[in-house]
Design brief:
With 110 residues, this protein is of the alpha+beta class. The protein contains six helices and three strands. The chain has a three-stranded antiparallel β-sheet. The longest helix is centred in the last third of the chain and has 16 residues, at 76-91.
Length: 110
C-alpha cells in the first residue's frame, strides 16, 4: 500500500463517528470488543467491522490474551492523531455552538 492509499484508508476510517469514538476510547487504554460494544451501544458484529476498518488503516492493533482479543492504538502517531483531532473538534471557532459530532458519539461521561 503506497502513502496515497494509506492516507485514503485513514480518511475512510476517520469518516465515521463510531470509529472516532473508538479511537478516543482506545487513547485512554486498550479494550476488548465487548467493552467497546458496551460503551458505543452497537452490536458485536458491527463493532468488529469498525475495528477491521481501523486495523486496515493501521490505526489500531489487536493482541490475544487467552480467549479475549484486546485492541489498542497502533502507534504514538495514531495517538497524536486522535489527540489533534479532538483538540481541533473542541477549539474550532467556526463551529456551531453545542456539542460536536464527535462529542455526541461518545457515551456520557467519556
Amino acid at each position: 500500500m503506497d502513502s496515497n492509499d494509506r492516507l485514503s484508508a485513514i480518511g475512510r476510517a476517520l469518516s465515521c463517528t463510531v470509529r472516532l469514538a473508538v479511537l478516543q476510547t482506545l487513547a485512554e487504554g486498550d479494550a476488548s470488543v465487548g467493552e467497546l460494544t458496551g460503551r458505543m451501544g452497537v452490536t458485536q458484529p458491527n463493532m468488529s467491522n469498525h475495528l477491521a476498518v481501523l486495523r486496515s488503516a493501521g490505526l489500531v492493533t489487536s493482541h490475544r490474551f487467552g480467549r479475549v482479543v484486546r485492541y489498542r492504538l497502533a502507534s504514538p502517531e495514531a495517538a497524536s492523531l486522535v489527540t489533534s483531532l479532538t483538540l481541533l473538534a473542541n477549539t474550532n471557532p467556526g463551529s456551531p455552538s453545542g456539542p460536536s459530532a464527535l462529542e455526541r458519539a461518545l457515551p456520557p461521561g467519556s
